[in-house]
Prior knowledge:
The chain is mainly α. It has a single domain, classed as Up-down Bundle (Four Helix Bundle (Hemerythrin (Met), subunit A)), CATH 1.20.120. It contains 6 helices and 2 strands. It has helices at 4-23, 27-31, 41-60, 76-96, 99-102, 120-144, and strands spanning 105-109, 115-119. A two-stranded antiparallel ribbon has the order 1-2. A hairpin with a 5-residue loop joins strand 1 (105-109) and strand 2 (115-119). The longest helix is centred in the C-terminal third of the chain and has 25 residues, at 120-144. The protein is globular. 18% of the residues are buried. The mean pLDDT is 96.
Amino acid sequence: MVDVRQLLEYSEEVRNRYFVCLTGLSWKDFTENREASFNSMRNIFVHTLGAIDHWLDRLQNENLRSKKKYDEYKSFDDVRTYMKSVEERAHNYLNSLTKSALNKKYAMKDDEGKTHRFTAEDILIHMFEEEAHHRGELIALLWQMGVEPPSMGWKGL
């Protein structure tokens, strides 16, 4: 069975490969509205970081996530800085995570106001899935531009 920490480490490795690929584009191509979920590749990439940041806030009862709007990321360095800060937060949380903390339950309301209970592990798996979903979008957008996306196979598969 795969430990959720291993899954998130793998996702970070792939995220960094994609970031290197994306920095090979011009800033104009990276920020162009492509009519995708969050319009541009920059926005999609920053959204995935924001989702991780959001869930880390929920898991740790904090309010540290970035409040910057997509257009406030003016360069690849701005995006890289945010990515590294999110990754550092994730490392700190995951390194402190005990078995009991992984099973801790969190109550959350859905859009209709119904309360559901999830474990920290459930939320971490959701973080992984959210990023994988949007990475698929980036793959399609890169292919449309004639750019071969980086490999993302688990353990080199």
